Amino acid sequence: MKIPHTLSEFTQTYYYKTELIKLCRQWNLPTSGTKAELNSYIEKYLKGMSANKIKPCRSNKIHRLLTYNEINLDTKLINSGFCFNKVARQWFADYFGVEKFSFSKKMAVIKRKAEVERDEQATVGDLIQQMQNWDKNKNASPAEENTYQWNNFVRDFFKDPATKQFNQRLKVASLLWKKVRISRGNKVYYHNMLEKYNKEIEIHKKG
Q1: What percentage of the chain's residues is helix, strand, coil (to nearest 5)?
Q2: Which of 100, 106, 94, 98 lies closest to 132, judged by CA?
Q3: Where along the chain do its domains lie?
Q4: Long-range own/partner contacts, residues 113-121 (CB < 8 A, 24 or more apart)
Q5: Which of 10, 93, 195, 201 has its CB 3.0 to 4.6 Å from that of 4, i.e. a possible disulfide?
Q6: A Pfam family this protein belongs to (predicted)?
Q7: CA separation for the pair 31, 60 (Å, rounded)
């Protein structure tokens, strides 16, 4: 591996990520992150910035991973324990009403942007909205309107303290939403639904 001594030498040479990590380690620079982030550390160093002033683009704090029931639309994307793991995959599958859910590249890009910008206000709800707006047309479609109603339904459901009695609360919300969706009434959550549809959802109550 060629060791660059100037910024010009570095930019004119292709380095694999493993080589970038070795360079960062040699110069006491942050060694975690994407290839683009590693490149940025080295470029700053070769431009004259001292190594101790070059900080990781993203926080490496270790948080306890969230359980299924701890994830909701208001869950923060960073510094909360949220990550794209098996639990989150199941949560998104239930949210979108699909049997299997796969994390997409756009989801990773959105989350990484929040990490790089240290946007501690970004939530799972924001992530979903940005996903849906990724290739959005200017005019909202009926499907988008339905999604908007479902989002509000889920938010209101989770705000009701009484729903904490259930395991996998999102599944319960989904069951109730199916009832609301085919009804003639407003597509909103209200507390009395827990009693009205008790037979359908009591199986999900905590033991």
Answers
A1: 55, 0, 45
A2: 106
A3: 7-53, 68-204
A4: 114/77, 114/78, 115/57, 115/58, 115/59, 115/77, 115/78, 116/37, 116/57, 116/58, 118/59, 118/78, 119/77, 119/78, 120/76, 120/78, 120/79, 121/76
A5: 10
A6: SAP_new25
A7: 11
